[in-house]
Design brief:
Layout: E1 4-6, E2 24-26, E3 32-39, E4 46-50, E5 55-59, H1 62-68, E6 73-79, E7 83-86, E8 89-92, E9 95-98, E10 104-108, E11 112-116, E12 131-133, E13 149-150
Parallel strand pairs: 5-12, 12-13
Antiparallel strand pairs: 1-8, 2-3, 3-4, 4-7, 5-6, 6-11, 8-9, 9-10, 10-11
């Protein structure tokens, strides 16, 4: 069984306006970019993401099914430097969750931040998956998302 470890708090997050619209800030090019926000179920863990995701996908693998409690997971990938978080988190098998309510919210790697789409504050998110992973485990009643690229297992 894998050990659960706790993460340190990252940096403070940016705010949305009163209507919940993501704030705009100046990006490295000097133009304004969107700040996407999200949180866990109880609100103890909050995060922000600068700009748009690098990619978005769906996964039907057994791990994602079990971790989400659903037939698949939707996730979005940002550059790790675009991610900021506050609140108590724990990690199990690379998946970060709220230490208070248990909601799975993200997975962090040195170069990327993988964000669970359901943890974003805005729904619908406005982001469309560009690929599906582990399609050999996709439920028969789900149809391939077109024009998303299809992978029987992982992308690599």
């Amino acid at each position: 069984m894998a050990k659960v470890r706790h993460l340190e708090k990252d940096s403070a997050i940016n705010e949305t306006d009163a209507a919940g619209t993501p704030a705009l800030r100046k990006g490295p090019t000097g133009r304004e970019e969107t700040t996407v926000t999200g949180a866990c179920l109880c609100g103890a863990v909050k995060f922000t993401l600068a700009g748009d995701p690098i990619r978005a996908g769906l996964c039907h693998c057994q791990d994602c099914r079990r971790a989400s409690g659903s037939a698949f997971s939707m996730f979005l990938i940002w550059d790790r430097s675009a991610f900021a978080c506050t609140g108590p988190t724990g990690v199990y098998e690379g998946r970060s969750f709220c230490s208070s309510c248990g909601s799975r919210v993200f997975s962090l790697r040195p170069e990327e931040a993988e964000i669970m789409a359901g943890a974003l504050d805005r729904a619908p998110t406005g982001f469309t998956p560009g690929y599906e992973l582990w399609t050999k485990r996709r439920e028969h009643w789900l149809r391939p998302l077109r024009p998303a690229e299809q992978f029987e297992e992982d992308r690599s």
